[in-house]
Amino acid sequence: MERSFSFHPVVLAVYFVSVLGFTMFSGNPVIQVAALFGGMLLYVKNEKGNKSFWGWGRYLLLFGVIAVTNPLFSHNGVTPLFFLNGNPVTLEALLYGVHMAVTLAAVVLWFHCLNQVLTEDKLLFLFGKVSPKIALLLSTALRFVPLLKGQASKIRQSQKAMGLYASESFVDRFRGTVRVYSALLTWAFEHAIETGASMKGRGYGLKGRSHYSLFRFQKRDAGFLLLIVVLDMVILGAMAAGSLEFAFYPAISATPVTLGLSLALAAFLILCLLPFILDGKEELWWKYYRSKI
After folding, report:
1. Mean pLDDT of the region 234-245
2. What is the largest CA-CA distance in the chain?
């Protein structure tokens, strides 16, 4: 995705804010399903090979827990399916649980894709002039994820070499895990302090400090940004007109299908599929030119 979706950081930020904003704040389930579909395509596209299939397990577990838990604790709705311990399990509560599960899974998938596209240098570019401290905090936090994984593996291997994992009992493994995380937290605090002191010593965040960046706003970025704005305006217009309203309680009800609703849903689906469409277009052109050689 990085090859064909390498736009200006501002354009990428506007795109992901648009998708995540409509996914989280729109109550229409079709919006969430479209967001989940687009996020799944991007996830599979980025995580090539068996790794992508292994990653589905956590999302399916999250989906199942939320979908099943809501009707067990929420008994709102006018369509009881069956009774459990004297409490009704309603169709509305079940569908609302599925709706929440789809929304959360879609948001997590899109944040996963955002983390791959908006790298540390792009975050520094976005927030460096507005708030250098926030930029440093975000870039450090994102950088700490792979660093912590690598350091935890080193600590665990070192302790195994010292013979601290000789027993296979649960207590021994639990104590070993606690020792690993204790050493890992100490290392993380020390590394964060050293990074902050190093950046301060280099004058990061001082007034009048110049910023160098390789990112340049081009015509391609302007065209993509204009397309995002047009799609956003179509969706926002439908939301303002109430065309996307949907209610689960007390009974399932939705606004009738109108031209505005259809245009808004089509616009959001196109918005979610834009990275995948661009990637597919690039691959088709590449195969076409290779066939001409």
Report:
1. 88
2. 73
Parallel, antiparallel, or unpaired for β 80-84 and 87-90?
antiparallel
Whether the CB-CB separation of 7 and 253 falls below 8 Å is answered with: no
> Is the Cβ–Cβ distance between 273 and 41 less than 8 Å?
yes
| Cα–Cα distance, 97 to 66 (Å, whole number) | 6
pTM for the model stands at 0.71
Q: Which residues, listed in sequence order, are joined to residue 90 by a DSSP beta bridge?
A: 80
The residues pairing with 246 across neighbouring beta strands, listed in sequence order, are 254
Average pLDDT over residues 207-211: 65
The distance in angstroms from the start CA to the end CA of the chain is: 25
Record the tokens describing residue 239, joined without a space. 């939301």
Amino acid identity of residue 111, one-letter, is F
Distance CA 293, CA 89 (A): 64
* CA–CA distance, 26 with 253 (Å, rounded to integer): 15
Q: What is the 3-state secondary structure (H, E, C) of the chain?
A: CCCCCCCCHHHHHHHHHHHHHHHHHCCCHHHHHHHHHHHHHHHHHHCCCHHHHHHHHHHHHHHHHHHHHHHHHCCCCCCEEEEECCEEEEHHHHHHHHHHHHHHHHHHHHHHHHHHHCCHHHHHHHHCCCCHHHHHHHHHHHHHHHHHHHHHHHHHHHHHHCCCCCCCCHHHHHHHHHHHHHHHHHHHHHHHHHHHHHHHHCCCCCCCCCCCCCCCCCHHHHHHHHHHHHHHHHHHHHHHCCCCCEECCCCCEECCCCHHHHHHHHHHHHHHHHHHHHHHHHHHHHHHHHHCC
How many residues can be counted in the chain? 293
The sign of the torsion formed by the CA atoms of 279, 281, 284, 285 equals negative
Looking at the chain, the whole-number percentage of residues with pLDDT higher than 90 is 13
- Which of 1-10, 86-95, 115-124, 225-234 reaches the highest mean pLDDT? 225-234
Q: Please, what sign has the CA dihedral across residues 61, 55, 145, 209? A: negative
Q: CA-to-CA distance for 209 and 235, rounded, in angstroms?
A: 40
